[in-house]
Amino acid sequence: MAETEAVREAGTEAGTEAGGKAGGGSGPAGRVPRVLLVLGTSTGGIGRHVRTIAGGLAAEGRPVAVAGPPRTDAAFGFSQVARFAAVAMSDRPRPVRDARAVARLRALAAGADVVHAHGLRAGALAALALAGRRTALVVTLHNALTAGGTVGLVYAGLERLVARRADRVLVVSPDLGERMAARGARHVAPAVVPAPPLRPAARPAAEVAAELGAGERPVLLTLARLAQQKGLETLLDAAAGPFDGPPPLFVVAGDGPLRAGLLARIDREGLPVRLLGDRTDVADLLGAAAALVVPSRWEGQPLSVQEALRAGRPVVATATGGLPGMVADAGLLVPPGDAAALRTAITRLLGDPVLAARLGAAAAARRLPDEAAAIRAVVSVYDDLTGSRS
Fold first, then answer.
1. CA 357 to CA 314: how far, in whole Å?
2. I need a labelling partner for 248 at 20 to 30 A (CA). Which of 161, 255, 341, 371 fits?
3. In CATH, what number does 205-365 get?
4. What's this model's pTM, rounded to 2 decimal places?
């Protein structure tokens, strides 16, 4: 089958799975709403969250389809639990490609009762695709912009479009909710974005620490994509010291566009930092770590912090976005971009075993939402919008 024919067939099947007659509209009372989930490029949290929702809806016998770039299906296996339709969506504005994506989404959403888009770009494209239709639009915002200039202006325009068109805007942090309300969003509510259950560590902490080359030094773990939002230059500034005695070993698990620049600085300045690349043994790394360090410029509900809390690890993080509410009494918070405050908090934690034990116990005791709670939350929104009651 030619590629164009395969794409066309996938689109037809996804549209059939997501709904019946063209034109969409709210489902009649008592009928289970037909849902089309939409996402853009993702290699991490957004993709995992959409996979959770798709799998949960399918397990309940609810009609659901997923639309997004083909590589998201390869990464997250959407087609294993739902109909998947390929839609080429770039991570930045490209007028010709965006116009094609809007047309494609309009066709796919023809029979859906609810379109649930994840991320601002996907939300804006879905809003344009649904223009003139009664189909309900839900948009979950997972991230905030941390850059200014032209990018910031474009981002603000997309926010206004989503705020104006979406029936529900779900947000991962209070500041995002305030921002969207100021943009004119009619109904803003918190999103529930849980981390998958953390598998037990497979190896002893001492073995992992030895593999990392820590020696007698404590290990401080950062789980992050190597990108601008994650504030990794602040982490390197903090790692540069000074420390009383040998510095701890900072290890960063993850990859991204800033890797070469970060590595060059680490080598040039001889910093006690190791870039591990992408890892599948997060539980092992957490077991060997004295704490999770989160130097981000902004975060919503990062899965890495949820994983650290479930592992009973203290968190040293920036006080931004959804982090204060997540960390609560299980860690120490510092201002974003303040390397001296970050280093001071790390030194305080490592130098006070009683404090570290208290924060670790508070982490283990934190009650976090699970995947079932995430499914209940979105089902409630879908049913409310369509007048359905299952």
1. 8
2. 255
3. 3.40.50.2000
4. 0.84
